[in-house]
Design goal:
Layout: H1 2-45, H2 47-68, H3 71-81, H4 87-114, H5 116-123, H6 130-155, H7 159-208, H8 225-241, H9 245-256
């Protein structure tokens, strides 16, 4: 009898511990891969160009953070709450997230691209940064899909797939960056931000089509604006909660230039 009473507890522990181990292992692996990738990029570019690359990367990080508007986090939260809902209902949420994320990314990327020259001259006093900043603006449109699909996998509680995707996309970033730098130098390093987003997005799209709990997305049906409000209602406060830390990195990098 006692064994029957302990079984649910053991199942609960496994359900809690196993995903945590996958998340921890993937975080460690991604961290190591990020260090290796940064070291290789630094050696290929040299000290000065790597500093320029880091500056452009910090600008891109700030713009990408704003462009997300917390929608990936909101998608994970609401999708996990709907796991007992029909496929159509979850599909409507995912479709709303995709449309909203794409529109917000465009809304940030376009002015960011158009103002690249002004940012380079007015803030940094370095006109040569303008084309690099413009490339990083385009990169915003290439990374949104990867971020959103990661959020959907988390909402499905497909933690193993999510962890594997993080590691594989991080590992794929190294050869992409190396090839781009060898071909185009500093410009290639910045371009690799967009290329890595494309490669990761394609991997994520494949991961999204596997496993249980696939959402049935009907693209031709009408858009529920209420879902937009629902996503923004949770996403914007989430974004504002990190409004201090992310800009702080950009400000610190800018002051060091």
């Amino acid at each position: 009898a006692s064994g029957l009473e302990e079984a649910p507890e053991a199942a609960f522990v496994r359900r809690l511990v196993t995903p945590s181990l996958f998340v921890f292992a993937s975080a460690v692996a991604v961290g190591i891969l990020s260090i290796v990738t940064s070291a290789v990029i630094a050696r290929l570019l040299g000290l000065y160009d790597f500093g320029v690359y880091a500056t452009v990367l910090s600008i891109h990080g700030l713009a990408a953070f704003i462009a997300r508007f917390g929608i990936p986090t909101a998608t994970t939260r609401h999708l996990s709450e709907m796991k007992e809902k029909p496929d159509d209902a979850r599909g409507r949420l995912v479709r709303a997230s995709i449309i909203l994320s794409l529109l917000l990314s465009i809304a940030i990327a376009v002015p960011y691209f158009l103002l690249s020259g002004a940012i380079a001259v007015s803030i940094y006093g370095q006109p040569f940064l303008a084309p690099l900043i413009a490339i990083s603006a385009v990169a915003i449109l290439s990374v949104w899909a990867l971020e959103l699909i990661r959020a959907v996998l988390q909402g499905r509680e497909a933690i193993r797939m999510w962890s594997l995707l993080n590691v594989v996309s991080a590992a794929a970033g190294l050869p992409v960056a190396v090839v781009a730098i060898l071909l185009w130098g500093l410009t290639g390093a910045v371009l690799s931000i967009a290329l890595i987003g494309v490669v990761g997005g394609l991997m994520a799209a494949g991961a999204l089509r596997t496993g249980p709990r696939r959402e049935r997305i009907r693209w031709r049906s009408t858009v529920d604006c209420g879902l937009f409000r629902k996503l923004l209602g949770f996403g914007v406060p989430t974004m504002l909660s990190g409004i201090v830390s992310v800009p702080a990195v950009w400000i610190a990098t800018t002051l060091l230039v």
